Amino acid sequence: MVSEHELNERKLKILHAIIKTYLETGEPVGSRTISKYTDLNLSSATIRNEMSDLEELGYIVQPHTSAGRIPSDKGYRLYVDMLMEEKEQELNVREEQMLEKADKMEKLLKQVARVLATNTNYATMVSTPVNSANKLKFIQLSMVDEEQIIAVIVLGGNVIKNRIISVEEPLSNENLLKLNMLLNTTLNGMSIEEINLGLIARLKEQAGIHSEVIGSVLDAVADAIQLEEDMQIYTSGTTNIFKYPELSDKQSAQEIISAFEEKQQLTELVTQTLSKEENTGIQVYIGDETPVQNMKDCSVVTATYELGDGMKGTIGIIGPKRMDYEHVLKSMKRLQSELDQMFHKKE
Amino acid sequence: MVSEHELNERKLKILHAIIKTYLETGEPVGSRTISKYTDLNLSSATIRNEMSDLEELGYIVQPHTSAGRIPSDKGYRLYVDMLMEEKEQELNVREEQMLEKADKMEKLLKQVARVLATNTNYATMVSTPVNSANKLKFIQLSMVDEEQIIAVIVLGGNVIKNRIISVEEPLSNENLLKLNMLLNTTLNGMSIEEINLGLIARLKEQAGIHSEVIGSVLDAVADAIQLEEDMQIYTSGTTNIFKYPELSDKQSAQEIISAFEEKQQLTELVTQTLSKEENTGIQVYIGDETPVQNMKDCSVVTATYELGDGMKGTIGIIGPKRMDYEHVLKSMKRLQSELDQMFHKKE
DNA sequence: GTTAGCACTCTTCGATTTTGAGTGCTAACA
DNA sequence: TGTTAGCACTCAAAATCGAAGAGTGCTAAC
């Protein structure tokens, strides 16, 4: 971690100025620029000396001799942690409207991804909410036709799952009713961890001749309750990466886009994000810090949102390391609170 | 359409040779190459004369003077329609295994997309099957808790939909049973078109005090039965386009990748494909022929697959115009029949 | 400690040249 | 009459060259 002894105030100011201008221009920044556009009133030569020190300390690097300096990962990290001041951001009415319209959760989340992408000019992702400790709320079996039973399973947060179960011979209405009763009274409010072998054995016993149906049902329940399976991830603005030359060479572009298409890696990012419990729920990964290998030349900002009932989802922004962190963090926070409002208005 | 008078056999042979070598190399092909690598035994000068004719007829074009020739869209079209001979293709055991493993439909389709992408080196898409004339098979209402009813709707092909309906006061078990009976006897086997206002009015009347629940339920049914809503599209190998220089400049790449991310355009492609009833179910769009604007510099090959019950889905391959049509068509046909087998084995 | 000045390094950009593939045309040939 | 050798010509792509310019590091003076 950065000690204060390492950098005096002047060095900090210079570093700040370097990073800020680099975020805007994307070009290496030289000593002359800093000397002119800050209120330090130092000559370029002095700046050069300081820059030389900063480079030695690892906060900035030179792409090649006789080029200006650009921030290193360590420099960015310092910037995000200490230097950056967050500016107030006005509400954008148009976005507001876009979000209002979305009626269903799924559409809403897609919309969120899109709004965020157009608003920030980075690539974005939004995961559907999942529940790490999900509880059973309701089970119902019904005969669809002679050979098939449909099991409707409602989890906390009104997540609905269905499974079709095939049986040799139809169950009578009466038996079905009994079975439903049995299942509901026994399993209601239970989480997946609580449904153990002993319980299953007991259930089967009570079900008598229908024990094999119980087995199938419990399999279905266990299957349905697995969260990863049905976490969806929506992405938007992937092609925004082409706006940043440092990411749009074939090699990088290919890696990043692959990660966005094969959702596997994003899933990884989401689970990792959700597992870390931070106070604000917002995390910044710079370069190598990211859990997604394919994005090691990017910065990734994630936020978690909550629905109550323990349901949590993740929003992510992926862009170049010279990302406009102030803007992004601000947008994230706004979205977070907006989603919060929406979901809590609904209930 | 191409008349036979326009091209004698020698011209056809030369055109064939040009296209074939261009498909392999991706570079404009000159007269010398053709004269050397065919059994025509003609000098390059003669070939040049013929090529000049072929250009005048619009089958090939010259990117610039003093370059070789490349096929025009018209040339490709002739090739696909007449010239191409499909070579036999050996079964690939590894793919076979990959496909076998997938247990659920969703996974299977994702797998199909992936296999096809790695096998062909093009970008691929697979749509989940939808039913253009879907019928209601089963409806069941249940109380989840005091204020919420869950409606489970099963459509032909065992497609299951759920809707949650809020009510002011709970329905008694008895009433629920009646309502279920009423709904099932009335609506069973009906398609969306058959559920008209008269029927709805009659239903509401019979339901008595629960008429407003009926209204909500029917809304839910209508909503659930809409096909577009829940057609999913899986893509794979989008980044394969970077393998073809003619598609990997920023402009094109961005357009194509956007189309793959925002599924809107692909949905368009699917509906268009499904609406055209061809004998083999395989279609080839070359360049401007494609329904997807963003892919006008590509060739698109689509195939439809069937599940019975009128459920149909689409597989698509998107690549450069100089696509290996033989290989692609062969792969498509194989996949088609393989999927057919699988789905009919299951039932 | 700060700064002016200067030599030096590298990239970038444009202009120019070179190279090589490929054509079209003409004249000769079978 | 169709085929071919030969040659002049064209043009894109690659290589070469020479500023121009941005920026640095170092030294010496303030």
In short:
The first copy, chain A, is an alpha+beta fold and 347 residues long. The first copy, chain A, is 46% helix and 19% strand. In chain A, strands 3, 4, 8, 9, 10 and 11 form a 6-stranded antiparallel beta sheet that branches. In chain A, strands 5-6-7 form a 3-stranded antiparallel beta sheet, covered by helices on one side. In chain A, strands 1-2 form a two-stranded antiparallel ribbon.
Characterise this structure.
Two copies of one chain form a homodimer. By secondary structure, chain A is of the alpha+beta class. Chain A has three domains: 9-83, Winged helix-like DNA-binding domain superfamily/Winged helix DNA-binding domain (Arc Repressor Mutant, subunit A); 93-130 and 232-346, 2-Layer Sandwich (Beta-Lactamase), CATH 3.30.450; 136-226, 2-Layer Sandwich (Enolase-like, domain 1). Helix content of chain A is 46%, strand content 19%. Chain A has twelve helices and eleven strands. In chain A, the strands form three sheets. In chain A, strands 3, 4, 8, 9, 10 and 11 form a six-stranded antiparallel sheet that branches. In chain A, strands 5-6-7 form a three-stranded antiparallel sheet, with helices on one face. A two-stranded antiparallel ribbon of chain A has the order 1-2. In chain A, strand 5 (136-145) and strand 6 (148-155) form a beta hairpin. Chain A starts with 8 loop residues before the first helix and ends with a helix. Chain B binds a DNA duplex (30 and 30 nucleotides) through helix 3.
